[in-house]
Specification:
Elements (H helix, E strand, L loop, with lengths): L13 E6 L3 E7 L9 E6 L4 E5 L9 E2 L19 H14 L4 E4 L2 E4 L11 H7 L11 H13 L1
Antiparallel strand pairs: 1-2, 1-5, 2-3, 3-4, 6-7
Pfam families: Myosin_head
Protein name: Myosin-Vb
InterPro entries: Kinesin_motor_dom_sf, Myosin_head_motor_dom-like, P-loop_NTPase, SH3_Myosin
Length: about 150
């Protein structure tokens, strides 16, 4: 869990809470958290209200959500908050909504196996990435290969 000063958990703050079925569930704080409170008052995305128990002594508060403008970023290092729920959510959005199997995390390429053949490895794609810098186009294994080739030649 992320350790935050209590003043950062105000009404309308969006957070991630653990969920046994979905792993992480998005919620919004609907009542300011005050130091010593034993619960957070949350509204889930399906509009249900939930009291989330917290241990004030351990000060384990939920992870903060990234702003919507950062959802689907092609480089995880661009996220404001880089933790498990943020990474999983970003990868899920990129894969399920945008059909992108590749995402950068700095100079590392993260790949999700789609378990099917995709038309992203043809000669035209090779030519598109040829001569390009790694961050100029969408993340792809060909961008990493081109960067490695340039560095080797240099």
């Amino acid at each position: 869990m992320l350790y935050l000063p209590p003043s950062s958990l105000l009404q309308y703050t969006r957070v991630w809470i653990p969920d046994p079925d979905e792993v992480w569930k998005s919620a919004e704080i609907i009542k300011d958290y005050k130091e010593g409170d034993k619960t957070l008052h949350l509204k889930l995305e399906d509009e249900t209200i939930q009291e989330y128990p917290i241990d004030p002594k351990a000060n384990k508060l939920p992870f903060l959500r990234n702003p919507d403008i950062l959802v689907g970023e092609n480089d995880l290092t661009a996220l404001s908050y880089l933790h498990e729920p943020a990474v999983l959510h970003n990868l899920k959005i990129r894969f399920l909504e945008s059909n992108h199997i590749y995402t950068y995390c700095g100079i590392v390429l993260v790949a999700i196996n789609p378990y099917e053949q995709l038309p992203i490895y043809g000669q035209d794609v090779i030519y598109a990435y040829s001569g390009q810098n790694m961050g100029d186009m969408d993340p792809h294994i060909f961008a990493v290969a081109e960067e490695a080739y340039k560095q080797m030649a240099r």
